[in-house]
Write a structure and sequence with these properties.
Blueprint: E1 8-12, H1 17-28, E2 32-37, E3 48-52, H2 58-72, E4 77-80, H3 95-123, E5 126-131, H4 144-164, E6 169-176, H5 191-200, H6 209-220, E7 231-234, H7 247-256
Parallel strand pairs: 1-2, 1-4, 2-3, 4-5, 5-6, 6-7
Length: 257
């Protein structure tokens, strides 16, 4: 497949985790990719470049977009993937932690869209994929800053889609569930915690970064040409559940007694 031949992409937070998988997927299908990250990736190539970027600083973001244009002459795809979390309840949360989570998860998304949209508009179109989270669709214990920041990304995606449709720029969001990344490792490090999670995921396992990359690549491609403002979950089915007990399973257990 070469869905991205001749296309140029920027992926924020592309040095590791889901971002690195997205970079690899886009490049494997023909794209030229620039990674915007504070940390250098394990490797680059003729088709993958890296520019150290603080995605929360407007000057860094503008310079990064300009460098991509200088190197490859265009920008077709933007994937806003950079993100962090914080596991702390509100009374104990320091203000700078709240601000940092919003700066990386939400402000950075805004800054990159602000810099990229005029370029895409002048070129006649493009695709933006914002990596949100299922935590932007509902609440979690002790994750108020993360929940709120990702919910902002979800609704910002909808608003951007409305603003950008007339310019041929599609904007969609991907909401991953539990994915095997460094960021999520602590949640399932203990075998009991892992079992607790997997009991609640209908597919019975965590997702892989490459599986998220496949969905992000679809949203960025012409295969999703009639999709904009869509919020796509890739979570093993966890958000399909109301949270109520598994009544048929409980009935079967009673019959076996």
């Amino acid at each position: 497949m070469a869905r991205f031949d001749g296309k140029v992409a920027i992926v924020t937070g592309g040095a590791r985790g889901i971002g690195a998988a997205i970079v690899a997927r886009l490049a494997s299908e023909g794209a030229k990719v620039t990674i915007a990250d504070l940390d250098a990736p394990s490797e680059t190539s003729d088709d993958v470049a890296f520019l150290r970027t603080d995605a929360t600083r407007a000057d860094d973001v503008r310079a990064m977009v300009a460098a991509t244009l200088e190197r490859w002459g265009r920008l077709d795809i933007l994937v806003n993937n950079a993100g962090i979390g914080a596991l702390v309840e509100t009374p104990e949360m320091e203000e700078d932690v709240w601000d940092r989570v919003f700066a990386i998860n939400t402000r950075a998304t805004f800054l990159f869209c602000k810099a990229a949209i005029p370029v895409m508009r002048d070129a006649g179109g493009g695709a933006i994929v914002n990596i949100a989270s299922i935590s932007g669709l509902a609440g979690d214990y002790a994750m108020g800053a993360y929940n709120a920041s990702k919910a902002a990304v979800v609704n910002y995606t909808r608003s951007l889609a409305l603003d950008c449709a007339r310019d041929g720029i599609r904007v969609n969001a991907l909401c991953p569930g539990l994915i095997e990344t460094e960021m999520a490792a602590g949640a399932v490090a203990d075998p009991a915690d892992r079992a607790f999670w997997f009991e609640r995921i209908p597919l019975g396992r965590s997702g892989r970064p490459d599986e998220m990359a496949a969905v992000a690549a679809f949203l960025a491609s012409d295969d999703a040409s009639y999709m904009t403002g869509s919020i796509v979950t890739a979570d093993g089915g966890i958000t399909a559940h109301t949270g109520q007990p598994n009544a048929p399973d409980r009935i079967r257990q009673r019959k076996l007694r």
